[in-house]
Amino acid sequence: MRIGALRSLLPLAAALCVAPLTHAQDADYSHYVSPWKTHWDYSGPRGPQHWSALDPDYVLCNTGKQQSPIDIRGAQKAALPALRFEYRGEPLRYLINNGATIRINYHDAAGSGNDLLLGEERFQLLQLHFHRPSEELVHGKRYDMVLHLMHQASDGHVLGVAVLLRNGGANATLQQLWDHMPKTEGQVGLEGVSFDPAGLLPRELGYYRYQGSQTAPPCSEGVTWIVLKMPVEVSAAQIAAFAQLFPHDVRPPQPLNARIVEESE
Ligand SMILES: [Zn+2]
Questions:
Q1: What's the predicted TM-score (pTM) here?
Q2: 101 CA to middle of ligand 1, Å?
Q3: Phi, psi for residue 44 in degrees, rounded to 5
Q4: I need a surface site. Which of 19, 114, 167, 251 has the fewest CB within 10 A?
Q5: How far is the CA of 74 from the centre of ligand 1 (A)?
Q6: How far is the first Cα of the chain from the last one, in angstroms, to the nearest whole number?
Q7: Is 110 or 176 the better-scoring residue by pLDDT?
Q8: Where are the domains of the chain?
């Protein structure tokens, strides 16, 4: 019953993910298919100012009032629930370059994947990907990169975790991916890579929280964003390797409008 209910939610999951998972969630994911039917870009005539005009499915991008990313400032301290990451290592089967970023899709059955507990609510990791520099600003400051870990609860609630990455020591977990980074749009099959996303998390889990959206078309809203305060170090060489493929895969900060940003105590 629960599995059946979850299956019926998968199209919803597809609609809400940063890049829709319509194809990636199919049983056969051995072949790469672009998640977007209409091409968009981070600059020029298909850039962020024009996303809504490119496709009716992208209309929220320039009309939504709860869009992401934002510049985090004026946060209000609040008694927010603790985060508990129940991540684990598992073999990676493939790594994607979707033309906008490097990305991992997860296909775990409910209850067998990488979970995140926020208070009583349980979320499962659906995909992770990177931006350079960070899309989020904190008090006007941008970081060298950001990791986005996109989760979903069984009721469809989407939760993104942003891990700010800054120039420092090399990260061994990141290097496992970078060693196999597809240089052009498509995917590469992997063998013998056991990957644990917990290796990309900071030591301390204080965070900012606000309601926002996917930061790429279709810019779907209803996404709870958790931005971890403590950054994680990656090396200059690791940043440069990503920048060679994606020098600027970043949407500009969006108006906060009536939203409130909360900060864990
Ligand atoms: Zn992202």
A1: 0.89
A2: 8
A3: 80, -160
A4: 167
A5: 23
A6: 39
A7: 176
A8: 2-264
Going from the Cα of 249 to the center of ligand 1, the distance in angstroms, rounded, reads 9
Question: What's the gap in Å between 1 CA and the centre of ligand 1?
Answer: 32
pLDDT in tens, 179-219: 999 999 999 999 999 999 999 999 999 999 999 999 999 99
- Expressed in angstroms and rounded, the spacing between residue 75 Cα and the centre of ligand 1 is 22
Label residue 167 by pLDDT band (50, 70, 90): very high
Ligand 1 midpoint to CA 10 (Å): 20
Taking the centre of ligand 1 as the mean of its atom positions, its distance from the CA of residue 37, in whole angstroms, is: 18
| Ligand 1: centre distance to CA 215 (Å) | 6
Please state, as a whole number, how many other Cβ atoms lie within 10 Å of the Cβ of residue 100: 22
Full 3-state SS string of 45-72: HHCHHHHHHHCHHHCHHHHCCCCCCCEE
Which CATH number is associated with domain 2-264? 3.10.200.10
- 18 C-alpha to center of ligand 1: Å? 6
223 CA → ligand 1 middle, Å: 12
Q: Which helix (H) or strand (E) holds 15?
A: helix 2-16
Residue with tokens 């931006």: 131
Beta bridge partners of 212: 223
The residues, any chain, with a CB within 8 Å of residue 1's CB and separated by 6 or more, are: none
pLDDT at 35: 85
